[in-house]
Amino acid sequence: MKLLITIAALTLICLGLAIVYGKYRWEIDTATLRAKLTNGQKTIQPKFYSEDELDGLPEPVKRFFQKVLRNGQPMITAVKLSQQGQFNMKETEAKWNPFTATQVVTTQCPSFDWDARIQIVLGLNAFVHDTYLLGEGSLLASLLGLFTMANVRGGTEANLGELLRFFAETAWYPTALLPSQGVRWEAIDHTSARGTLTDGDTTASLVFSFNAEGLIDTMHAVARYRDKLVAMPWGGRFWEYVVRDGMLIPLQGEVGWEYPEGMKLYFKGRVTEINYEFAS
Description:
Number of domains: 1
Helix content: 10-25%
Radius of gyration: 20 Å
Shape: globular
Largest sheet: 13 strands, antiparallel
Oligomer: single chain
Number of strands: 13
Number of helices: 3
Order of helices and strands: HHEEEEEEHEEEEEEE
Strand content: over 45%
CATH class: Mainly Beta
Distance between the termini: 68 Å
């Protein structure tokens, strides 16, 4: 009996040490990654939003900017936000796991890093980096920050997928949607428009739909790669808009793959904190 207790105690100690070491190593790698991200920023121009930019834009896009921005709003150069929510780890069934995450975004040039902890079981987390950095997309998932579960880096599919994510989340940093920041807008109808963003060799297009208040309701991509072989319709929606630093942004969102039988969500999250850096 004593032997079993000793073995159990040693096992718990080893697990505890592994958890501490994995967290420590992951945080060092995160700091290195985010230093590269912020060091890659370029000077943003213009430094302030002007309503003159709205001339010639589709009507729903014009209404959106008039609703969420004030004339003279400083351009967003960087964002740091925190999230909590649920992530579906299964492709064929709904198995939702709680997560917390921080995300750093730079708008010039477009880059982000999403650093998440997804709870597998109590006390056991998957660590995830979902990243678009200097034109390259990547996804790294690791159990406890020590054992690799997925590692995808670069290639046309990953680069496009992560640029689509950056573009889809611009509701959180809306000055990045302005024409002066590289977005081209095409009219569709009185409630939707197509936006296109090019970064290097990668071009992402999304259809944004706007609600009765003029705010972004949903976004949709005709195809985003789930892996190197399979591309599927992909999209999501935003709600619970609030004022932050003079801008209207959503706090809640959800994202999923669009199957013929309907949407299958894999992300449901809420922004719990958001801080901006502005051009000056």
